[in-house]
Amino acid sequence: MNQGLSMTEFIEITWTSASLDEARKISRRLVQEKLVASAQIIPWVESVHMWDNKLETVQESKILLQTQIEKFVEVKQFIEDNCNYEIPEITFRKIEGGNKAYLDWILENTNVSGGLAK
């Protein structure tokens, strides 16, 4: 079937950040370095979870990042190295199909050799 999907595998990474400022800073760098084509920032979500055996309720920013699956390890490492969380939420889902023009745009905007400039 393969409707709207090329041989390249695309993913959407979900990440939560401790602050909107951090989300913007890291997202901009990921886009500038062409590790992700797009970063969509949802400024405020409320998260409820256990941390150190205590129930926590915190406000966070949720970020959705579109890229190629081969970029995941580098994106994950960059987030871990630059965010405030000890254990950041970083997950991904495969994009199984969609608008071919949009998927081509993701490819075009993440298709460079190399990685983050130091």
Describe the structure.
This protein is 30% helix and 36% strand. The chain has helices at residues 20-32, 72-82, 100-110, and strands at residues 10-17, 38-51, 54-68, 90-95. It has 3 helices and 4 strands; from the N terminus they run βαββαβα. It is α+β, with helices and mostly antiparallel strands. It is elongated and about 45 Å long. The chain has a single domain, classed as Alpha-Beta Plaits (2-Layer Sandwich). Strands 2-3-1-4 form a 4-stranded antiparallel beta sheet.
Short description:
The protein has 118 residues and is α+β, with helices and mostly antiparallel strands. It has one domain (10-110): Alpha-Beta Plaits (2-Layer Sandwich). The protein has helices at 20-32, 72-82, 100-110; strands spanning 10-17, 38-51, 54-68, 90-95.
**What is the approximate shape?**
elongated
Into which percent range does the helicity of residues fall?
A: 25-40%
Rounded average pLDDT:
91
Intertermini distance: 41 Å
Element order, helices and strands?
Answer: EHEEHEH
Structural class: alpha+beta
Structure summary, number of beta strands: 4
Beta content comes to 35-45%
Strand order of the largest sheet: 2-3-1-4
How many discrete structural domains?
1
The total of helices stands at 3
Q: Major sheet, described briefly?
A: 4 strands, antiparallel
CATH topology: Alpha-Beta Plaits
The multimeric state of the shown protein is single chain
| Low-pLDDT residue intervals, each spanning 5 or more residues | none
| Name of the level-1 CATH class | Alpha Beta
Q: Give the radius of gyration.
A: 15 Å
Q: Give the name of the CATH architecture.
A: 2-Layer Sandwich
